Amino acid sequence: MVMLILPIVNKNRVMNVHIKIKSAEKIRTGVSFSDAKESEIIVNREKFSDSIFSNSKEISAPIEFVRSKSILYPRNYLITTKQEPSSTLYDVYEVAQPPKKVNDSLDKLYSCALTDMRKEVPGNKRGRYVSFAKLGLEDHLTDEKIAKLQKIVKENASEEWPKLFQKEGIADLKETLDFIDTFECTVISDTTIPEDSLQDVLKSLEVINTRDSRNLKNYYNTAQSNRDIYSKISYINQIIYKKPLSLIKSSKEKQKQLIKVKEESEYKNVA
Fold first, then answer.
1. How many CB atoms lie within 10 A of CB 25?
2. What are phi and psi of 173, to 5 degrees?
3. Number of H helices, E strands in the chain
4. Any idea what DSSP says for residue 59?
5. pTM, 2 dp
6. pLDDT tens digit string along 209-234?
7. E strands, the chain, where?
């Protein structure tokens, strides 16, 4: 499988977080259909490979295709992975409709997650790092906008917020939280590195300046910038909802959450 990985510094540790679309569910494994190629997106029987979007060099082309083919009938859509090695078989995902557009940067993040499913080779594990900064996320989270948000929330009743957010041109801050909530972020077990250990390694490799040392430095820089941007999003969540963002969860926390959801579902069925 392919993993979209967010390196991030947290509490003097560098963690690797797997980002995926929360609604994406693998519904078929080891199949091949005559009317569907590998690495395909299918929306209302329309195929990404047959569309003008497939020729686009824009990162956000996949989500633009999904939205354009969902205007009349907004239904779940399908994604096929790449074929298995030495085989014509692939896996199939079903995904719920994407959220409405907030900005280009979030669309790029969503499209990266779609592309990772399309490029997945069943049975093969490989990862690809994502940088919030390179996607341009921080450009939409300016200190000026956050200060306006803070002032409105502090001085006005909550029912007045939407109108005032719109008036001040900061409605996208609340919409960013809603968009981000479509992702599931899980810390990859046994990949956490103490930050001081990583710094020691970088210091010792600084003299030789090899490609490996430069890649490691870029990795650490990405983890630091991801932390800074995530902190801003978390602060916005704190201002609006009076609690920090809890998007990133450990495998254990995720398992507890799944058990809780299952128990609640079973209780409702009994009731």
1. 12
2. -70, -45
3. 9, 11
4. T
5. 0.90
6. 889 899 999 999 999 999 999 999 99
7. 2-10, 13-21, 25-31, 41-43, 46-47, 77-80, 90-95, 126-129, 183-187, 193-194, 248-249
Distance CA 118, CA 266 (A): 34
Do residues 168 and 42 make contact, with C-beta atoms less than 8 angstroms apart?
A: no
Confidence of residue 1 (pLDDT cuts 50, 70, 90): low
107: which 2 tokens?
């669309």
* pLDDT band (50, 70, 90) for residue 251: confident
Q: Which residue's structure tokens are 């579902």?
A: 265
How deeply is 150 buried, as exposed, middle or buried, from its count of CB atoms within 10 A (0-12, 13-18, 19+)? middle
Residue 148 near residue 170 (C-beta atoms within 8 A): yes
Alpha-carbon span 5 to 26, nearest angstrom? 19
68: amino acid identity, one letter: S
Cα separation, 90 vs 261, in Å, equals 30
**Who's near 228: CB < 8 A, 6+ residues apart?**
138
pLDDT at 7 > cutoff 90: yes
Could you give the maximum distance between any two Cα atoms of the chain, in Å?
67
Does residue 113 contact residue 82 with C-beta atoms inside 8 Å? no
3-state secondary structure of 55: helix
- Computed on alpha carbons and rounded to an integer, the radius of gyration of the chain in Å comes to 21
Is 172's pLDDT higher than 80? yes
| H or E element at residue 113 | helix 104-118
